[in-house]
## 1
Amino acid sequence: MKEELIRFENVTMRKEKEILLDNLNFYILKGEIMALISLRDKGREEFLRLISQNLPIEYGKIYYDGRLVNGYIHSDMNVNRVSIIQEKSGLIESLSIADNIFIMRKGSKKYIINERVLEGQMVRFMTELGLNIDEAKHVAGLSQRERVIVEIVKGILSGHRLIIMDHISNFVNQAQLTAVFTLMRELKKKGISFLYVCNHHEEAFRIADRALLYMDGRIHKVLGKDELTDKNIEPYIIPLLPSGNNRIFRDENDILQLYGVRYKHMLGLSFSLKKGECLTLLDMDNRAPKEITELLTGEAAPDEGLIEFDGRAYGRAEALRFLEQGIVVVPDEPIENYLFYEQSYMENLTFLLDRKIGKSIIKNSYLKSIRREYEPLTGPCIDEESISGLDSKQLYSLVYYRVHLYHPRMAVLIQPVAHGDMYCRKHILDLIQSLKDMGISILILTNSVSDNLTVSDRLIVVKKGKSVAEYHRDEFGLIRK
Amino acid sequence: MKNKLDYLENRIRLFLGAMTGITAGLYLLTLFLETGTVWMKVVLILLALAGALSIYLAYRHIYLPYQESQKVKTLFANGMTYNGIFELPCAMSREDEAVFRRFSEMLDTQKLINVSKKEAEYLALQNQINPHFLYNTLEGIRSEALLAGMDSIAEMTEALSTFFRYTISQTGNLVTLENELANIENYYYIQQFRFGDKLDLSIEYDTDEDLDETDILNFKLPKLTLQPVVENAIYHGIESKIGKGSLKIRMTATKEHLIIRVSDDGMGIPQEQLRQLNKRLRTLTIEDESSRKKGGIAIQNVNNRIKLLFGESCGVYIYSQEHVGTDVEITLPVVTGVEYGYVYGSQAEGE
């Protein structure tokens, strides 16, 4: 008979006057994979924290394994037996896998450690699961798939029965994701439950038994196993097709060409990006985003092969001056990695401008003119002295308006829609489309095709360091199917 | 028998005593010991430690329980909890606790359940004698009589009488899911004469190797739990929809709960109205004229009866999206044996 592992009853959580979680009701069964598809993220972080720790709540009750662990009358702040697997590793890189699993777990109180015993336990467990990872290996040398597996094993050996997989497709590649799914199915049979958190329903439907549609602190719908279809979710999602021209690209001149490039995991990678085109480069192994960026920004030179930018050789010397060449790179998670929170909105917006105009001090008249031009787009937040109070939509706008203002010839966007809820992703796609409408060539480097196709003209699939397939926009329907 | 220190009043007395002792100690210290002596320092440190410990203990065992009790009282005053007031983590005094206990006993749950059940029967009856209901049903009978002869008239009459009989004459609070579903099928049969092909009903069971359909059908639930929900789905969800409408009843049983989901693909409920409705469903609500106007009375009534019988952990929750449909999720304890006792939630919650 099915057993409930966690149950939320009318849980309401408030932060000051704002309701973060509004009357949440749901349960996860033992040995069930429940997906949490976030349509709008408000309160999502607090929701995940509340599952793992008994924080004070305004109303409702939370049960874990049949026991009342948190309620509106009393919250003991204790942690529940729940693991969260996120992009940021919870392991200590300088220690071995066995040390991480047995010594660093909560409740380990041994002063003298018998490594052979620990490794024996670890091997037994790994063998049971059909996993083949050298337990003596240091965490620093693990692939993302191995790291995820080790964190799951660590959680289970610590007695955790619920594992929250928080946006794992953002950091494991497609092949690795399939392997992680296989492991999840195996563990499910052993009674381990999962909460699979992601923004893309297609991804969730591949693995989930049921799905919670979450938006702004409320669960709008619980989809059963037989309801996990595009048709059923359609009324709850917005079309992601960006507003703008969205024209099909026809210019045949290349802006960027790679001929047989060999570097790290690239084994003779060749592709070209046409002027004004938006090309998505999907790397099934999730290595190309980092390695191509290293080559384009002059961090390294290819071991073999040739890169050309606008018809001229693009060697390391040119790459070191990539901004002057007209290339802008927007990193992964740009609102974390591309903005300066202690600076004002205008300082952030005009950050690249000194490189563009070749002067270290930007005239006041220029700044006034920029303010006049962008104020209708940004609204009053353009006058903010610090950007720390802005919401994610405003921050993403700032990232892309900076590129917009710089007006490069090519923008390299790394996993642009990997983060953010559905409404945020729609906004990012609109911003990318606006760059495209300005004639800027766009190279999207990603490990997940997801929503990137709605703005792309072409898709190239890279596998084991080589391009293995190419699709034009009129063929995208086939990929989606 | 509770310990004296289980009451806040006694804890406060103890704390005040400790603080008075520490203050007196400090006073005596200044009288009998010279400033700067080692003894003075030692005693001062000990008194400071005792003071800090008293304040910490007062915070943990007086302030926090007081805050929690105040929160529950506020929620009770705002109508957001019903049982909570009788489960205060720490009563102010023995007398206060006795008052709450007496108050709880005075609220005759049995009487409330009966009133609530009577209201459900009354609502069902009211709908049955609704002229439109009768007209449509009789029109159906007449059409059938004209077109197909006497057999179907007999069938319809039988369906109607079975429905009346189940609604009115069966006594007791709990019935088997099998009986409740038979009543729904009967109700659906009657409604089909009005809606024809427009209405489609399916019943599904979430079974596994340990639990088959028969096991689920033997679980017990309050009588007339499903009919008002199905009726609501038809009249507020499907009736005003253009085209066909479908109703799905899905039963899931866990070791802890029987969860019944009644889904329709009708008109749905606007989000703010849904929010308010779910907020009202969190606890027992006394129906006044204003709440009647807000709608959802039948579902609130079902929710009230469930909460009265099984405690606040069970009840109704609604998911809905306008122009897409509504899911009404009814959470009940797993009951297989004799009639359920009328003790507030003690058996269901097991807390």
Note: The longest strand of chain A covers residues 4-15.
## 2
Amino acid sequence: MATGSFDGQVQGLNQLQKQEQRKYGRGNYIPNVRVIYWSMRVMAFAGVLMFLVAAVGAWLYRKRKLERARWFLWTAIASIALPYIAATAGWILTEMGRQPWIVQGLLLTSKANSPSVSTTWLGISLGVFISLYLALGIVDFVLMRRYARPDRPGPQEEPPLPAVTY
Amino acid sequence: MDLQIRWFCLIAVFWSGYFLLEGFDFGVGMLLPFVPRDESERGVMFQSIGPVWDGNEVWLVVAAGATFAAFPAWYGTMFSGFYIAFLLLLLLLIIRVVSFEWRNKNDSPRWRTAWLWVNATASAGTDVVQARL
């Protein structure tokens, strides 16, 4: 598939490593194979699983059993996580797969960091963002739970106002 | 005209557009605790920027993106040199955006007042950081 023909040759990692060493000098040009191998599979399997869940749902709908099939409804709720898992795995795949380059053939990741930003500050900013998103996520969850309660009418929206004319 | 000069002008337009349009949102945000006399007036003020703030903020995204694409060295120097300032800017923008979305998700006056102050503080804070830059 990669070469577009049936008898094309795909080069192995070790050959590529030798080629790149000749081209760009000494160094390790092989990305973390284990991580790429698994993130690719997690992404692909999560995607196929989504198709399967959708297909089962369509079949149940045709049989007019969709509303009563509790086991499927629970499966559907659980599979809300699938797109997020697939997207995250795909993101890891691209970001880890392009190592050690940040721009292929031009700039190594190890040479692309800012000398003026210390590791401490990177850690602080990462921690701040993680805790902020965690807090927002918790509030969001609480809000959604309130909305999901069947007995509680939703809060009043902002009353419709006449559009402002200029 | 050289490509560099063309891009420089384009980026100047993007940054000016952001400061002009989003500056209006920040101004309204800062006046929120002081100008309106009742809840319905507060609603009017929120709604006056409600539909446009996200469009105005895209100017910032485009400006930063264009800087990155056209002048990587400039972008790299600016964003790592002002790392803390940009971190602060981003945090303030995030909580300001949340205040638009969450304010009317609950009827309790405390909730609404809290988000109003979040919006006002974040608007003022963003302006302070931008002025410092």
Note: The longest helix of chain B spans residues 3-31.
